[in-house]
Here is the input.
Amino acid sequence: MLSNHRKPVQARSRKTYELLLSAAETLLEEVGVERISTNLIVQRANLTAPAFYRYFDDKYSVIEALAERLMQRQNTALTAWVARYRDKGYDVLVDRAEELVREMDTITRQQPGAIWIMRALRAVPRLAHVRLASHHFVTDLLTDVYATYLPGVARERIRRRTRLAVEIAYSVDEMLKEDRNDEAEVFEDLSYIFRSLYYHPDLAVPPPARDASAETIPALS
Here is the structure.
């Protein structure tokens, strides 16, 4: 699906583009999706309407650009996580999944207006392709990694289980942006869910014995 925004090429154009994105993300943090408008973005960026429409069709195309940037940062973090653990064994991959979700949580907390971007990706049909493209990228990459340790299991089953895990992880990330009460317990429950998915009998992988004295994964700042 084609994007509804046009990325600049020249340095001067990139500066204008970045000013518009910066203004939009700040305004999202302040007023949310419904109240943000092209006029507010232009005023906050101290630019003109023609400058805005050179790159964007409307406010949703700005949110699309911000969402693509956010998803790319998350995908980069995933790729680095996979590089760290893909050769460490199946048990380590499952056990360190919580760490990956914490990294995603940190990335979205550092993005102004992230909760509004995440809501828009679910609520606005024309933006759904950004969320789905990222989720499929994450699912396919993780499926490739897990499949190497599950040679007797159909890839379709591994991918379906992984897609469920990905959707749950993103939902938890969104939930934590709205309410951080019981955060430690939420991550504890999430780890239990991941282990239930990836040590289910139909994957023929017995869960390892848990060391009750093992340290929990610290929250990332």
About this structure: Residues 103 and 110 are 11 Å apart (CA to CA).
